[in-house]
Design a protein that fits this description.
alpha+beta; Double-stranded beta-helix; globular; binds succinic acid
Length: 302
C-alpha cells in the first residue's frame, strides 16, 4: 500500500500511514515523510513498538543526533536515546519523569536551532480506555502571522537569548526531583542567541521563535521591557487558536519540527498508569540556518 497523509484538521499535525519504521525505509518513503513533516510540523506514524536501533536509524535519516545535556537516563551504549518514563525499577526511576512539562522548543538552547524530535511510544497510560498524557503543540508560523503588522516588523529586527539552565532551574523550583544543574552542563550549553522571528531553515517561512521555558531575554531592551514583551509573546504563542494535541497509542512515532512549533507534555496520569517513551533529537543544519537568517542569531551570548 502507498503511504498516505491525513492532516488533523487542527492548526498543525497529521497522521502518515503505510510506512513501517521498524525496518529501513526507502528514499521515496523518506521523501514522503519529509514533505508531510514540513507541511504539517507534527506527524504521527503508527505501528508496533520497535527497538532503539530502529529509532536511531530513522532519526539519522533526518540529521545528526543530539546527545542530550540532561544526561540522566542516557544508555551508555546508545547515548542518542533519551528514556522518558514514570516507571521505576528496584526503586530507581527508569527515565525522566518530568520532561517537557513547560512550553518549549527542543534544542533552541543550541547555537543552531534544532531540526526535529522523534518520540516513540512503548507504553501509554490510559483511563477507561482513553489515552492520557497528550503532547500538546502550537504552530509558530500561525502565531507569527496572527500578530499585528507593526509588531511583526519590530520583532523581525530583534534577537533573543536562550538557555537550557533556565528550564532546569524552573523545574526544580516547581518541585522536580532533578539533581542540581552542574558546572559541566553549564559549560556544555552556554547561552545562545537566535532571531525572535526565525526564518525556517528548510521552508523559508517566518516563525515566532521564543518559548516560556528557555527564552531568557530580548537583546537591546531593558529587563522590564524584555519581560513585558516576552510574556506577551509567550501568552500569544500558547493560544489555543494555534493548537494540536497528540493522543498517543502504543507504537506511535511522533516527529515534530523544532523551528516552527512549541510543545508541552500535558501529564495528567500517575504512577499506577505507566508511560514509557524513547526519544531522539535531531540537530539543525548550520548552512541552511545561515542561508535564511543571514547575520542574525546562531551565536553564543557573551
Ligand atoms: C518532550 O518534550 O520531549 C516530551 C513530550 C512528552 O513526553 O509528551
Amino acid at each position: 500500500m502507498k503511504p498516505t497523509v491525513t492532516p488533523s484538521g487542527a492548526a498543525l499535525g497529521a497522521r502518515v500511514d503505510n510506512i513501517d519504521l521498524s525496518k529501513p525505509i526507502t528514499d521515496e518513503e523518506f521523501d514522503f515523510i519529509e514533505k508531510a513533516f514540513h507541511d504539517n510540523l507534527v506527524i504521527a506514524i503508527s505501528g508496533k513498538p520497535y527497538d532503539d536501533e530502529s529509532l536511531i536509524r530513522f532519526g539519522k535519516r533526518l540529521g545528526e543526533l543530539e546527545l542530550n545535556v540532561a544526561r540522566t537516563f542516557r544508555d551508555d551504549n546508545l547515548p542518542q536515546i533519551n528514556v522518558l518514563s514514570n516507571l521505576t525499577v528496584d526503586g530507581k526511576p527508569l527515565g525522566s519523569a518530568d520532561a517537557g512539562q513547560m512550553w518549549h522548543t527542543d534544542l533552541c538552547y543550541n547555537r543552531i536551532s534544532g531540526h526535529a524530535t522523534v518520540l516513540h511510544a512503548h507504553l501509554v497510560p490510559t483511563r477507561d480506555g482513553q489515552p492520557l498524557g497528550d503532547t500538546a503543540f502550537r504552530n509558530m508560523y500561525q502565531a507569527y502571522e496572527a500578530l499585528a503588522p507593526e509588531l511583526r516588523a519590530r520583532l523581525d529586527q530583534l534577537e533573543a537569548v536562550h538557555e537550557f539552565e533556565q528550564l532546569w532551574s524552573a523545574m526544580i523550583a516547581r518541585g522536580s526531583k532533578r539533581p542540581p544543574y552542574t558546572d559541566e552542563q553549564r559549560a556544555e550549553k552556554p547561552a545562545v542567541v537566535h532571531p525572535v522571528v526565525l526564518v525556517h531553515p528548510w521552508t523559508g517561512r517566518k516563525a515566532l521563535y521564543v518559548n516560556r521555558a528557555l527564552t531568557k531575554s530580548i537583546i537591546g531592551l531593558s529587563p522590564s521591557e524584555s519581560d513585558e514583551l516576552l510574556n506577551f509573546l509567550f501568552d500569544h504563542a500558547e493560544d489555543p487558536r494555534f493548537a494540536y494535541a497528540h493522543k498517543w497509542q502504543v507504537g506511535d512515532t511522533l516527529i515534530w519540527d523544532n523551528c516552527a512549533s512549541i510543545h508541552l507534555a500535558t501529564g495528567g496520569y500517575d504512577a499506577s498508569t505507566p508511560r514509557l517513551m524513547h526519544r531522539v533529537q535531531v540537530l539543525g543544519d548550520e548552512a541552511l540556518y545561515r542561508q535564511h537568517n543571514k547575520d542574525r542569531g546562531g551565536r553564543y551570548y557573551v
